[in-house]
Amino acid sequence: MTRFILQRVITSVITLFLASIVVFIGARMLPGDPAQVLAGESADPALLEAIREQFGLNQPIWVQYFTYIGQALTGNLGVSTRDNIPVAEILLQRLPITLELAGLAILIGLVIGITAGVVSAVKRGTFVDYVATGFGLVGLSVPSFWLGLLAILLFAITWQVLPASGFVGFAEDPIGNLRGMILPATVLGIGLSAVLMRQTRAALLGQLSADYVRTARSKGVTRGREVSHALRNSLTTVVTVLGLQLGALIGGAIVTEQIFVIPGFGKLIIDAVAARNYPILQGAVLVAVTGYVLVNLLVDVAYAYLNPRMRLSGGSE
Amino acid sequence: MRVLDVSHLRVEFGTEDGRIFAVKDVSFTLGRGEILALVGESGCGKSTVAMSIPRLLGDSNVTIGGSVRLNGADLSSLNEKEMQAVRGKDISVVFQEPMTSLNPAYTIGNQIAEVIRQHQKLSRQAAKARAIELLELVGIPDAARRLGAFPHELSGGMRQRVMIAIAVACDPQVLIADEPTTALDVTIQAGILDIFRRLRDTLGTSIILITHDLGVVADIADRVAIMYAGRIVELCSAQDVFSLPSHPYTRGLLGALPARAVMQGGRRRLTDIPGFVPPPTTDPDECQFAPRCPRATAECIIRRPALELVAAEHEVACYHPGPGDTP
Ligand SMILES: Nc1ncnc2c1ncn2[C@@H]1O[C@H](COP(=O)(O)OP(=O)(O)O)[C@@H](O)[C@H]1O
Ligand SMILES: [Mg+2]
């Protein structure tokens, strides 16, 4: 197990390194000149040159990269080109908002997805199963921006039970914060729950006909216990799928934050792209990628933990 | 004293390709402390008989007829909840597939404790102590440490011993073992049969032992039921099956089996009999062994022969029981 975790940590570090290069170069491949954006369309060449000098934009790209990485490792992600505020400070402000959104979305996705998957597998072929399977199909095919607009239309405009936008910090007003987060988190979690529902259902159906379930039955346990025997062996699939869905979740978060005007990471990235604010863009994407890699690492560890075969073979090596 | 009384058991599966008559009409009784061997070629319905006794044929497309009585009480009148109280406590099963019959995600200690705590009000500690005792009973060394092991850490033979420990955890009156050693190495077989014998001798457990192996029958069984195409064709004592086999099918099974090798516990498989087993999709009123039978006459395909006594405690379903190729 330790060895397995160590291996995964090393791969994660390599992944992060490669990702940082891609992010760095990618940001610079965006059309448009940041100095130009900052100085305005009709700025004179001397001013442009001064700005380039200030942000190191006139140096070779690899020098820029290593300078950047060297500072990043000490927690210095540069300053925003717009207002000179340290990027790290801005990110620290925005990160909790997106984490809350994503965390709530994952929670909603897990609860709805696993519950619906279990119910439809256990009640296979019944009305409930058709409803859940139908929900799974719809949830997969409906784009989140459309779902978001629909949710705003229904809950915020027609019924007026939840706010359409207007983010409040959790520290200021926890209830108001949660009221504002329910719609976006649900919209973001629905797609995830649809995927999880389908995978849970398929995995559980496979496991329910396994020999060990018949053994459990022969012991005189209830149907619920039989299902939990099978579910325990389906969870590895669920965890894997959750890991694979994280990328989609991050993408979805960007869209959702735009729709519901939530000042999180997604909004920060989109605004940074528009303003050609490289330091913010790089910093935000880098942190997002780091988060993605970390969570994947956690997923792998959870997977190993859920699968005793792996837990032990890793430990005895 | 009869512990189990199976009478006119019929099991049909509804499949996409039509109905499967897996068990057509099976009746037998099991006395206390008796070991009954259920013998027959693959597909003749042995497992289906075994699984229908504790109602483990879960599928909704199964039709079960006849009755199963445990100490005189009809099990088919019990609802699912009442049946759960019987499974694992009064009637237990050891399955044919030791490699897949245990849950890979739980320790064996957990899996043994589950059945104990399901039927007895025991604390976690007491259940654990009982689990250790059971592992020792089935001959697993270093039992206390093994409780924390996962199934994949054990060999097939060890896993089957764990299955037996689970099955006997609540001192069942009836133990059904479906080819418990078929998937295992020959050398392991004797040890497992020993456990069964010990259970019978110490606790008076009644055992239905399904087997392909006539050596096993000679070794441990008191009585034998020979099955063919969903029916019992011969039912007699274990001695009689070797000394006075009366159904041509039984004689065919024994054909190439020297009596002495059997008595020494040699592992011999059932003999191949020329011809084919009839498909289980029909249930005609005739002797289904007739097409393969050297003694068949016109009578055999007009009406099905019923099980009848040919000697004391020896029933045969044949118009022409006895030795030789012609009636
Ligand atoms: N769940 C099922 N659905 C359909 N047919 C089945 C099912 N279980 C068993 N059968 C059929 O019933 C017959 C008897 O099977 P089985 O009891 O397993 O025989 P045995 O244990 O003697 O090899 C076989 O033809 C088998 O294909
Ligand atoms: Mg079988």
Please outline the helices and strands.
The complex is a heterodimer of chains A (317) and B (327).
Chain A: H1 2-28, H2 34-39, H3 45-54, H4 61-73, H5 87-122, H6 127-141, H7 144-158, H8 174-208, H9 211-218, H10 223-259, H11 265-274, H12 278-306, H13 308-316
Helix pairs in contact in A: 1-12, 5-6, 5-8, 5-10, 5-12, 6-8, 7-8, 7-10, 8-10, 9-10, 10-11, 10-12, 11-12
Chain B: E1 2-15, E2 18-31, E3 35-39, H1 46-52, E4 62-70, E5 73-74, H2 80-86, E6 91-94, H3 108-119, H4 124-137, H5 143-146, H6 156-168, E7 174-178, H7 186-203, E8 206-211, H8 214-220, E9 223-228, E10 231-237, H9 238-243, H10 248-254, H11 259-263, E11 308-311, E12 314-316
Parallel strand pairs in B: 3-8, 3-9, 6-7, 7-8
Antiparallel strand pairs in B: 1-2, 1-4, 4-5, 9-10, 10-12, 11-12
Helix pairs in contact in B: 3-4, 3-6, 4-6
Bound molecules: adenosine-5'-diphosphate and magnesium ion.
Adenosine-5'-diphosphate binds next to strand 1, strand 2 and helix 1 of chain B.
Please provide a written account of the structure.
In chain A, 79% of the residues lie in helices and 0% in strands. Chain A is mostly helical. The longest helix of chain A is centred in the last third of the chain and has 37 residues, at 223-259. Chain B has 327 residues and is of the alpha/beta class. Chain B folds into two domains: 2-221, 3-Layer(aba) Sandwich (Rossmann fold), CATH 3.40.50; 245-316, no CATH class. Chain B has helices at 46-52, 80-86, 108-119, 124-137, 143-146, 156-168, 186-203, 214-220, 238-243, 248-254, 259-263; strands at 2-15, 18-31, 35-39, 62-70, 73-74, 91-94, 174-178, 206-211, 223-228, 231-237, 308-311, 314-316. In chain B, helix 3 runs parallel beside helix 6 (156-168). The longest helix of chain B is centred in the middle third of the chain and has 18 residues, at 186-203. Chain B is globular, with a radius of gyration of 20 Å. Bound molecules: adenosine-5'-diphosphate and magnesium ion. Residues 46-47, 178 of chain B line the site of magnesium ion (MG).
